[in-house]
Amino acid sequence: MLCWISVLFWTLLGAGSCDICPCERPELCSPIQTERDFEVFVFDVGGKTWKSYNWSTVTTVAAFGKYDPELLCHAHSVGARLVLKGDVHLADIVDKNNRTAWIKEKVVLAKSQFMDGINLDIEQAVEAGSPEQTALTELVKETSETFHSQIPGSQVSFDVAWSPNCIDKRCYDYINIGKYSDLLFVMSYDEQSQIWGRCIAKANAPLEQTLNGYDQFLALNIDRKKIVMGIPWYGYDYPCVNLTQDICSIEKVPFRGAPCSDAAGTQKPYSWIMKQVNVSLTGRLWDSKQKAPYFNYMDDNGQIHQVWYDDPESLCPKANAVMSKGLRGIGMWNGNILDYSDNPVSQEQTAEMWNTLLGC
């Protein structure tokens, strides 16, 4: 508690940081400066499931949950970074002074918590040529410069949609964002956030579309050694308006100009999916075009649902593409949503998902 009071005090003053190391070994509070050839980037949303991660592969953890000093100490003990989450309303940082103040606040927080950088997760709609587009690029540039100067070896990463083609109206300056950041985490999921054709349930990350997205980023001459492939450890559960020849028509839920979207469904973790498929109407099915598994089930009210997800079979060609395209690495949303219980079947399923990160 005293440490957090000190953080608040110094943040208000705009200087200094809490220097009370929470680790038993003080050297574990030093920033990680060693670079790994292959990046395994994990988003953590809180709790203690991180204790069951495959730490032999993890290189960076983005803390999207409550700060956990125990997680920090463990990550540093195995040479992995722990980085902040960074999100800000872009209209607020068009003004340079506001932008600088936001960055300073994040640096002070990172230093007070002995963290190793920041993951910029800004998924707002931005028009090409707008003040917000310019401000976003400047934010990435200034954040990188400030973090690198204040925290030696720190990492600044930026999350982007599965394609640079204004997905979800995110018309960012991807070339310069790629230039100024250390990593681009490509979120190769939620690829049905804008459905322009038939309003039907589809794969969260169909293989061909996913890989085309990387070709588009590379066509912009973005350094492939800065690109991290993001994969989903979750799927979508769609209530079917009707089900005809195994095609699940879904409710029309518009999103950023598109008439339909995956908002018609509900995100479900892999741990839930692995249990639900066993009591489904169909068992696991495979779509040979989208290269993804799915199944149908009936809920307690008699409603038919179709669930699309990823498992080792659909993830393997994506992980292999990381190697063949020479990308920097791979990561997932999110590390917490596997079943880390003592159940032998769950343990095997969880181990397979972690192992798939390194290719098949």
UniProtKB/TrEMBL annotation:
- Domain named GH18 is located at 1-360
Q: One Pfam family name from the record?
A: Glyco_hydro_18
Q: Which GO terms describe its molecular function?
A: chitin binding; chitinase activity
Listed under GO cellular component are: extracellular space; lysosome
Family indicated by similarity: Belongs to the glycosyl hydrolase 18 family.
Q: What does this protein do?
A: Involved in the degradation of asparagine-linked glycoproteins. Hydrolyze of N-acetyl-beta-D-glucosamine (1-4)N-acetylglucosamine chitobiose core from the reducing end of the bond, it requires prior cleavage by glycosylasparaginase.
Listed name of the protein: Di-N-acetylchitobiase
The organism of origin for this protein: Knipowitschia caucasica
